[in-house]
Amino acid sequence: MSSGHSIKNTPTDDGSACQAMAFQVLDQLSQMYENLGIDKTAADFKPDVIDALVSQHIDPNEIEDRFETADTGVSNIDMMRLSCAYALGALASWSADDLENAWIGVGHAQYWMGVAFGVGFMKGARKDALSERSRAGANKRDEMYAPLRQFARKEAAAKPNGDPYPSKRNAALSVKKAVLAKAAELEIELSENQAERTITKWLDGMSFGSKE
Predict the structure, then answer these.
(1) Is 0.90 surpassed by the pTM of this model?
(2) Which of 97, 113, 130 is the last residue of a domain?
(3) Are 67 and 86 members of one domain?
């Protein structure tokens, strides 16, 4: 069944195949949303899922990390949300002329959309969704960023004068430039647009001058 209210967009130039594919994923997800049997139409996908992810600045890596620790299983809609988050991230990277990360995001978006479609509407699909490919990728990513994460935490431990930073966000902003420089030195990919959010996450568990 189709409501005729799928998400439409047109690439801004002939070379934006990546952008077009990201929008295609969002369009297909909206059709899947309508067929979930929860009294929703394709048009509801934008306010229910897309707008919610955008307003909350959800990082797809955070969603995927929660899959690893989920006690009750991962639902079909959870995987659709993850696919959507990757597609939105791909569009953000495309807008920032970061085509490498844009294509990576599209690949992840298509993968998780395929998993959501493949497992149908089964409950407790966690084992099916968390394939060896996904786990291996997560471990490799964590290992790759480990030296940069350690550097960020060391830099954020105190200001150059020895005083503590007043907050985690202040620390992340203050060390961002140094961390980006270290990333370039170590040849580790770190998007400048996502650096503050990523560094803030890396500083979890550290104590700063004021509670957040």
Answers:
(1) no
(2) 130
(3) yes
